[in-house]
Design goal:
- With 201 residues, the chain is α+β, with helices and mostly antiparallel strands.
- 31% of the residues lie in helices and 30% in strands.
- A 7-stranded antiparallel beta sheet has the order 4-5-8-9-10-3-11. The protein has a two-stranded antiparallel ribbon with strand order 1-2. The protein has a two-stranded antiparallel sheet with strand order 6-7.
- The radius of gyration is 20 Å and the shape is globular.
- It starts with 7 loop residues before the first strand and ends with a strand.
- The model has no long low-confidence stretch (mean pLDDT 90).
Length: 201
C-alpha cells in the first residue's frame, strides 16, 4: 500500500482499511459502508424499504458467487505434537500429485507456501501448508507462535459457491465436507487430542 499498488484491503477476521494508514481502520470501514448505503438509497422516498448491507451482499453473491470462509484456531497446543502434525502434512504434500482424489475433491496442487514481496523483493517461507482443489476450494494449515504457552494451529477453509440457492447457508454448514476432510488428512485430533477449536471465525 505504501508503494501505491493497491488502495483497499481486508483480512479474514473482517478488518478493512485503505491506503491512508498502515493498519485496519474500523471508522473508515463504517464510513465506507455508510457511503455505499447512502448511494444505494439516494432515490428512496420516505417510508420505502431501504437497501441494507445484507441486500448489497446478496446482490453481489448473485452476480459473482459467494466465497464461504472459516478459520479454526486451536490455541495453546503442545509444540512438539503440533510440529509432528505439520511434518505429517509436509510428508503428505511431498507425495501428492495433481489429480489425486480426496473424498469428493480433486487435488490441483499442494505446497508449502512462500511469498516474495513485489515491492522490496524480500521472501518468506513456510507461510502455510496448502491443499488446493480443482474447484478452487482450499485448506491451509499454519502455525502461529511457539512460545512457552504452546503453539496455535490455524486452519483456513475456503470454498466458492455459484449456486444462488446455497448462498444463504451458514458457513459452517456449507463448509462441513471440507472441514471434515481437513481434520481427517491432518489427523489433528490424533496429534493434539483436541476435539474442538478454541475459536471459530
Amino acid at each position: 500500500m505504501d508503494a501505491g499498488k493497491l488502495s483497499i484491503c481486508g483480512e479474514e477476521s473482517f478488518g478493512t482499511g485503505s491506503d491512508h494508514i498502515r493498519e485496519k481502520d474500523g471508522i473508515w470501514a463504517v464510513l465506507a459502508w455508510l457511503n455505499i448505503l447512502a448511494h444505494r438509497n439516494k432515490d428512496k422516498k420516505v417510508g420505502e424499504r431501504l437497501v441494507s448491507v445484507e441486500d448489497v451482499a446478496r446482490e453481489h453473491w448473485a452476480t459473482y458467487g459467494r466465497n464461504f470462509f472459516s478459520r479454526y484456531d486451536y490455541e495453546e497446543c503442545e509444540s512438539e505434537s503440533t510440529n509432528k502434525m505439520m511434518e505429517h502434512l509436509r510428508d503428505l504434500i511431498s507425495k501428492s500429485s495433481p489429480g489425486e482424489k480426496y473424498g469428493d475433491y480433486t487435488l490441483q496442487f499442494a505446497d508449502d507456501f512462500s511469498y516474495t514481496d513485489p515491492v522490496d523483493g524480500s521472501s518468506v517461507s513456510k507461510q502455510g501448508l496448502r491443499f488446493v482443489f480443482s474447484d478452487g476450494s482450499r485448506i491451509i494449515f499454519r502455525l502461529s507462535g511457539t512460545g512457552s504457552a504452546g503453539a496455535t494451529i490455524r486452519l483456513y477453509i475456503e470454498q466458492f459457491e455459484s449456486d444462488a440457492s446455497k448462498h444463504g447457508l451458514d458457513a459452517q454448514i456449507a463448509l462441513k465436507p471440507l472441514i471434515d476432510l481437513a481434520l481427517s488428512i491432518s489427523k489433528l485430533k490424533d496429534f493434539t487430542g483436541r476435539n474442538q477449536p478454541t475459536v471459530i471465525t
